[in-house]
């Protein structure tokens, strides 16, 4: 009976912490989505001329299109770069379009991936500690 009460108390505390962080989750999502959209639109505009270049290899242009051809593909690629395996979307552009894209991706990954996500995580921890 005592262990069940302790388990329910832990569950209740966990639910209270999640409820307290819903606002932070919403605004974090909005901020990260906005930054990813802006970065994606920049990348998409930069590779547009390559995708339309008839002198470039068609197979490589299709490969670039698969990652950056539409807004939804670009947004998914930017999400993948931030939270998953960032090497394939980066390599596609650095190998086929221009090596200068590597600088963009390094800055994007360091600023957004390390700084912004770490700040968001620390705010979630602070909210949790405050509620606990």
Description:
With 132 residues, the protein is mostly helical. Helices cover 87% and strands 0% of the residues. It has helices at residues 2-20, 22-52, 58-68, 71-83, 87-96, 101-131.
Layout of strands and helices, then pairs:
Blueprint: H1 2-20, H2 22-52, H3 58-68, H4 71-83, H5 87-96, H6 101-131
Helix pairs in contact: 1-6, 2-3, 2-4, 2-6, 3-4, 3-5
Short description:
By secondary structure, the chain is mostly helical. The chain contains 6 helices and no strands. The protein has helices at residues 2-20, 22-52, 58-68, 71-83, 87-96, 101-131.
Q: How far apart lie the N and C ends?
A: 23 Å
Q: Evaluate the radius of gyration.
A: 21 Å
- Which sequence of SSEs, written as H and E, runs from N to C? HHHHHH
* Biggest sheet record: none
The backbone outline, from C-alpha atoms, is elongated
Q: Average pLDDT across residues? A: 82
Uncertain segments:
none
Q: Descriptors for this entry?
A:
132 residues; 6 helices; mainly alpha
């Amino acid at each position: 009976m005592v262990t069940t009460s302790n388990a329910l108390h832990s569950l209740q505390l966990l639910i209270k912490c999640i409820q307290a962080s819903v606002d932070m989750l919403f605004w974090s999502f909005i901020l990260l989505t906005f930054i990813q959209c802006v970065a994606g639109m920049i990348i998409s505009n930069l590779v547009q001329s390559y995708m339309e270049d008839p002198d470039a290899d068609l197979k490589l242009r299709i490969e670039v299109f698969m990652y950056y051809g539409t807004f939804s593909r670009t947004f998914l690629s930017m999400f993948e770069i931030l939270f998953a395996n960032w090497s394939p979307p980066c390599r596609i552009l650095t190998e086929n379009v221009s090596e200068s894209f590597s600088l963009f991706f390094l800055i994007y990954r360091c600023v957004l991936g390390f700084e912004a996500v770490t700040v968001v995580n620390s705010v979630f921890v602070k909210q949790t500690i405050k509620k606990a």
